Amino acid sequence: MKYIPLLEILVAMMMIFIKVARLRRIGIKANVLGTADKSGYVLLPVVLFFVYAALSLFLNLPFPDIARKVFWKSDVLYWVACSICSICLLLLWFTLISFGHSFRMGIDKQTKDKLITTGAFTYSRNPVFTIFMLFFLGIFLAYPNPVSVLLLLLSMILIHRQILREESFLKKHYKKEYEVYCSRVRRYF
Asked: Quick check: 187 and 163 in contact, CB under 8 A?
């Protein structure tokens, strides 16, 4: 029972990998991480560190004792966290459908697609990033320890940084169309 949010984040990652694989099958290169800028990989070590830290808590792998310090224990907050993560999975599914064939991991300077402004993008200019910020909040509430608070803070900073990079690209790429879209739709939910 204590593994539910971790399983949900694995499901979210699988959803993304399946989307990338399905696009690759029809000839679309959806994983363009690091092609425009190698700094797009910065979040990966943070997530891998967290996965190892989480596994160390449950499988007694070597890890500093401070990571095992729990700020509070609350069954209510744990189930709130599970609910947040479950809602994030549904929102991610809706967002991946909204992307259609335009989904990319990273900034794709080579492909000229149309600007997506429908589906999940009518509520947020960055729904996937917003969903993952909420996901990491859920993870923190489920496992309130120094590692999860570090993951939450680092992910917020790195995701916001990536949003700013992508918005800069989109302003140059779509010009006035993107400006009009920005005036109608918020960056986050």
From this structure: yes
- What value does the mean pLDDT of the chain take? 86
CATH code of the domain covering residue 67: 1.20.120.1630
Q: Quick: pLDDT tens for 46-62.
A: 767 777 776 676 677 77
Q: How many domains does the chain have?
A: 1
Query: How is residue 9 written in tokens?
Result: 């984040």
Domain range for residue 179? 4-184
45 occurs within a structural domain? yes
